[in-house]
Specification:
The chain is mostly helical. It has a domain of 110 residues. The chain has nine helices and no strands. Helix 4 packs antiparallel against helix 7. It is elongated.
């Protein structure tokens, strides 16, 4: 009997690899276009342009980068937590309306291929079974702090270029500029999640795990 050939590394990891390539392409484009835009702003105010390496630690780069990352991690963390107990009838993104699902069952430490924290039990298991949401929350908080730092530095640089007084971090924390940057991104993430939750009730994409089967009725909930 012929041995079944194991799928290649590229096939087994194609989704993450393509997303990594997309990320690298976009972050590279952001870096170079942001660098040129920032230098143009400096030139307009009579200041010297900065090299690329210095731009990567500038407030301008930190602010625009982590402002976006912050909202993405907030979106994913909230989505993971909200889908534990909340439902949307007919959505492929929701658990079924009644009863427990596979993700609700208690972990089995006796399963031979179970991850180490499951076999260990105790505090390791407690932490592991909430590790996804905890990680997203930590990534959000780190990005939030880096966004705040970058935004403050960029704001104060603009103030200096125009001969205005700089702001202390305590003062800037209550400034409308910082919170405007945050809220304009947060709202876009929640409308994006709302879109997939609601649109998946009525629309289909054959072959996608984010969609119900094409012939499934609109009222069917879950994948």
């Amino acid at each position: 009997m012929a041995t079944k050939k194991k799928p290649s590394f590229l096939y087994r990891n194609s989704l993450s690899l393509v997303l990594i390539v997309c990320f690298l392409f976009c972050i590279t484009g952001q870096i170079f276009t942001g660098w040129h835009e920032h230098n143009e702003q400096l030139t307009e105010h009579g200041a010297s342009q900065i090299p690329l390496g210095e731009y990567l630690t500038s407030g301008h780069f930190l602010q625009v980068t982590f402002e976006n990352w912050e909202s993405e991690f907030l979106q994913m963390g909230m989505y993971v937590l909200l889908t534990i107990s909340l439902r949307q009838q007919g959505s492929s993104e929701s658990k079924t309306m009644e009863g427990d699902e596979e993700v609700d069952r208690e972990p089995d430490p006796g399963r031979k291929d179970a991850p180490w924290p499951v076999r260990k039990g105790g505090a390791a298991l407690w932490l592991y079974q909430s590790s996804l949401s905890i990680t997203f929350i930590l990534l959000f908080l780190i990005s939030f702090l880096l966004h705040f730092k970058g935004s403050l530095v960029d704001y104060n640089e603009e103030q200096l270029l125009t001969g205005k007084p700089v702001a202390a971090w305590t003062e800037y924390l209550s400034a409308s500029r910082f919170w405007f940057e945050s809220f304009q991104n947060w709202q876009s993430e929640f409308i994006a999640v709302l879109s997939i939750v609601v649109l998946s009730i009525f629309l289909r994409q054959k072959g996608s795990p984010e969609s119900k089967p094409v012939d499934a009725p609109n009222s069917e909930t879950g994948e």
